[in-house]
Amino acid sequence: MKNIRKITLLFAAMLVAGACDKDFEDINTNPNVPTVVTPDLLLSGVIKNTLNDQVNEAWSIGNIVVQHTAKIQFVNEDRYLWGERTSVWNSVYGNMRNVKNIIDIAENTVPVQNNYLGVALVMKSWMFSLATDAHGDIPYSQATQAKSDAVYLTTYDTQESIYAGILADLKKANEILGTSNETVAGDLLFGGALGKWKKLANSLRLRYLMRISDRKDVKAEMQAILDDPATNPIFESNSDNAALVYLASSPNQWPLYTSRVGSFDEFRLSKTLGDVLTNLNDPRLKVFARPTEKSVAAGTPKIEGIPNGLEDTQALSYNGGPLAVSRVGLVFACLVCNDAGKPAPVANASRGLLMTYAELQFILAEAREKNLISTGNAETFYTQGIQANMDYYKAITPAEYGIDLTVPADYFTQDGVAYTGSQAEKLAKIGTQKWIALLFNGLEAWYDWRRTNLPVLVPGASNLNNNKIPVRYIYPLAEQSLNAAGREAAVTRQGPDNLNTKVWWDFN
């Protein structure tokens, strides 16, 4: 009897097991969690995430280190007490996984989705440029190969080889965009307009060729781009700007819009930028900063900046205190960062900048002045760059702010702007105007300043970096344990892992 009972139980268990096995896949598959994703969903996330990170990096360090803004409290960043800064590294490598997924999907589709592939190569190139310009030698050729090839301990490529790869990928992107039939969806930057992606690819090529121009002879490559505009289109106006337009509603507003007012107000107009714009009677000053609350209360509105690099007590008491130091302009402000009697900041006034027409014009002006190219006129490029940046701010500044952005009649003929003087003086004017135009464009103003040393910037009086403005980020400390051999090889090749070791292209 016992044996019969055991056999019966065993048979019942087998039936149940069979039934479970039959339905196992259906029961354990969540219909709300897709296992396959399309490129459009990946692309929108990459664009939004990286450009939001651009804004935040500009706010926290980029504007500070090139003296667009300064801090009145919690001043470590302004005194160069940086330690490790992993934001660029984490943004690039975190989002690069999805760029790699887009590339894999595009290449493995029959026929190949060249449009998605081209867009992904542009994003890949730009993102890797951010990381290498911040740190120097970085994982590149083996990056994102953990899943596909089980490469977990990546080598650090030299910056020279990384730039060769970046330029090759941008050239390829220009060549393949528009050669397949798929519509590029999920494109928050250009709405699927492939012609604008081609313009961005070639404009970035000119940016990066200029970046390495002290190390490499780039004349032929720059001129080849300009000699064939039909094949190699570049930005032609502000309408081509690679700039993310935000929305008025959450969660797609200007990234700083939800900041705490106290955190936002730690950052103020730098005296360096304020003095330059004031001396030039530049209307952009009223976009970048607001009159001090003290001067407004007295009926004599005045914009006043604060020197960079003061220690906490000096910074908080400068000029009599925060009420006498200008806050950052309403265009960039948070929801509760408005002034008494003034309209509340608009949630989507500002943009997430990747590259602008104004920047390209300054690149061409410098290239022509140095005879790296033979196309065009340096003065024309220069004045077009200034005008383009003026027009950009005129277009995005809400009318209700009541900011007069009329360019003074003598602006372009005054000594500080007129394209006159020695070549060194002309290059200084190009560099200064480019520096102004690169406000809030991630770390781009810092990268360009390191290459040119223009404009002349003086470290803050209480800096903690031996009177030196930093020229790179140190590697993430986690790399010492996660990829010690790769990091050590890069440090041996590049130099000490500190803020003052120049990267390969920083030849000055």
Would you kindly provide a written description of the structure presented here, covering whatever features stand out?
By secondary structure, the protein is mainly alpha-helical. It has one domain (39-256, 349-494): Serine Threonine Protein Phosphatase 5, Tetratricopeptide repeat (Alpha Horseshoe). Helices cover 48% and strands 4% of the residues. It has 19 helices and 6 strands. The chain has helices spanning 2-27, 39-65, 87-108, 114-135, 146-149, 159-176, 194-211, 219-227, 261-264, 271-279, 285-288, 293-297, 312-317, 357-369, 378-396, 423-437, 444-452, 479-482, 484-494; strands at residues 69-71, 138-139, 156-157, 242-245, 267-269, 351-355. A two-stranded antiparallel ribbon has the order 1-5. The relative contact order is 0.14. Residues 6-20 have low confidence and may be disordered. InterPro entries: SusD-like_2, TPR-like_helical_dom_sf. It comes from Chryseolinea soli.
Tell me the layout of helices and strands:
Layout: H1 2-27, H2 39-65, E1 69-71, H3 87-108, H4 114-135, E2 138-139, H5 146-149, E3 156-157, H6 159-176, H7 194-211, H8 219-227, E4 242-245, H9 261-264, E5 267-269, H10 271-279, H11 285-288, H12 293-297, H13 312-317, E6 351-355, H14 357-369, H15 378-396, H16 423-437, H17 444-452, H18 479-482, H19 484-494
Antiparallel strand pairs: 1-5, 2-3, 4-6
Helix pairs in contact: 2-3, 2-4, 3-4, 4-6, 4-7, 6-7, 7-14, 14-15, 14-16, 15-16, 16-17
